[in-house]
Amino acid sequence: ATMREDRINKTKTVCTYCGVGCSFEVWTKDREILKVQPTSDAPVNGISTCVKGKFGWDFVNSEERLTKPLIRKGDKFYEATWEEALTLMADKFTELKDKEGSDSLGFIASSKCTNEENYLFQKLARSVFGTNNIDNCSRYCQTPASAGLMRTVGIGGDSGTMEDIATSDLVIVVGANPTESHPVLATRVKRAHKLHGQKLIVSDLRKNELADRADLHIHPEPGSDLVWISAVTKYILDQGWEAKEFLENRVNNVEEFKQSLEKFTLEYAEKHAGLSKETLIQTAEMIRDAEGTCILWAMGVTQHMGGTDTSTAIANLLLVTGNFGKPGAGAYPLRGHNNVQGASDFGTMPNFLPGYEPVEKDEVRSRYEQAWGTELPKYPGLNNHQIVEAIMDGNVKGMYLFGEEMGLVDSNINYVEEAFEKLDFFVVQDIFFSKTAQYADVVLPAAPSLEKEGTFTNTERRIQRFYQVMDPLDDCKPDWQIFQEFANKMGANWDYSHPSDIMDEVAKLAPVFAGVSYDRMEGWDSQVWPVKPNGESTPLLYEERFKFLDGKARLFPVDWTPPLQMGEEFDLHLNNGRLLEQFHEGNMTNKSEGINHKVSNPWLEVSHELAKERNLQSGSLVRLTSPYGKVKVRVLVTNRVTGNELYLPMNTTENEKAVNKLTSSYYDKDTHTPNYKETQVKMELLEKA
Ligand code: SF4
What we know:
Layout: E1 2-3, E2 9-14, E3 23-29, E4 32-37, H1 51-55, E5 70-73, E6 76-79, H2 82-100, E7 105-108, H3 115-128, E8 134-135, H4 143-152, H5 162-167, E9 170-174, H6 178-181, H7 183-195, E10 199-203, H8 209-213, E11 216-218, H9 225-238, H10 244-250, E12 251-252, H11 254-260, H12 266-273, H13 277-289, E13 293-297, H14 299-302, H15 307-320, E14 330-333, H16 340-345, E15 352-353, E16 357-358, H17 362-372, H18 384-392, E17 398-402, H19 406-409, H20 413-422, E18 425-430, E19 442-445, E20 454-457, E21 462-466, H21 479-489, H22 499-509, E22 526-528, E23 553-554, E24 572-577, H23 593-596, E25 603-606, H24 608-614, E26 621-626, E27 629-637, E28 645-649, E29 679-687
Parallel strand pairs: 7-8, 7-17, 9-10, 9-13, 10-11, 12-23, 13-14, 17-18, 18-19, 24-28, 25-27
Antiparallel strand pairs: 1-2, 2-3, 3-4, 5-6, 5-19, 15-16, 20-21, 21-22, 24-29, 26-27, 26-29
Helix pairs in contact: 3-21, 3-22, 4-15, 9-12, 9-13, 9-15, 18-20
The structure holds iron/sulfur cluster.
């Protein structure tokens, strides 16, 4: 930070919202945020920002911030000291651990918090409490994408950078809405499309803004992406358009894979994905004619019962066409939260230690056991979906959650709330008194990014530092400090004086972070993992090897899982997603005055056809009912959706409008990611416009 005479501080920070990872200067005077100033030094965004990064910061000064630890007494909470709160936590967690065993505890980490904080939290769960029951919210979004990539190319991250996307010949976006969810990335795609002749295909149920501009908008039947992607792959092979040399030299399992595609004919795709042969052939031809193809995808792919398989099918298509390991090509799962990539990278997963090393591997575990001086659990723990089930079954009794609004973002929230009520002891650590905190026994006041230091990892695997802008409010503390104090209450003897000490420890332990250090990420500098011991980044993966022992990728046969059908009376398909101005459930953005006045409450998007048939106008109030719950919401008649497909933004903190009152408890069969996008409802008119 540079101090000027007029006491304006200019501090580099990294956006706390989406996974694009924009960085910029925040200009402040004491706690007052004067402006956000982008600079050409920012590696991802240069001088661009979006409305959230530019105006979404006054939540840090919100009246509603938590300022003191709270302890429940009956139906009320009273303000407590840190000493009191941490002592109570140590007593209760120790009691549960001793009486019920280590695995009676569950730990839910935060994709909004730093890499260092996530690392410490998994260290706390594993080394202090002896459990692998730890997970983060990528379980709700992108775990299927990572799993699909691990099966095929070996690393669960973007294969290149946003520069590769911007310079690619052909960008295919599947089940994502970058204009609203990853705005600065979308701007780069739009520019490349408009000025540099980049071709664009968008596959989405909804005609989002990018689909409107695309050379081709594919509108498949809900939940049928795997079908059309596999059909295009088969067609390319049948025509002999595959990358023959690449397949021969760098890919295993080609023959078995070819056989697995047998049923995915154009006719099969016509029938099950509802797409014409011409559309499928045009897609195949565009891939054939492109020097390099990038495929970007998000929740429209992953939040299905076959989400991992569809992600795998995307990687298969890219392998068949030789689109890995060269600039301007590759697989790009678009990460949602600012640090959804980093939370998983740094080990808050039930099956992986930091850097995606399996907990079952003796060699890996013993490296950590030596460093941490304690024995570690040998088997994968429960993921967050399984933790909720285990609470219902009485097997998990204590939970520690930070920076995560499970009570609003989990699928089928009525069920999740029931689980919270069953917990013997529940700690929630956040910056606001969240919906989830209502169920807690202890609530701890944490510090948002502007009040601490740390690093975030964006969707490109780029690790970036941000600096402290202001002191923590009142009694608030950075999450990493809270974990350290709690661990030490439990007798752990941790001694980190700064987040850089934590990063140094990670660099020693996790090979993919070997050369990561705060010194090398000073100011606007960043590092992209895997980072070699000499500090060299790897922005483009797989140039020489895929991450398997023999260095070769694997084509991985997958089959189609048709989407969940809730029953005939639920005759409308309900899709959900984001609004540009709000972030996820909105618990930060809707406390930012700079943003909140720009948007109103979520509206249910209804097609013109359906509106006519049901006699609805924009403004009509309707009730949506699924087998799991009901919501009341107002209608917006629009041509963004068609036929019997509805769309409800997920950004709300109002329970009566929360889309997850309607979603089910079914999930992706490989990763337990909820099938948020497989929801059907019936609709009743309550009040005319
Ligand atoms: Fe922040 Fe994402 Fe907007 Fe960039 S695009 S300013 S990272 S919300």
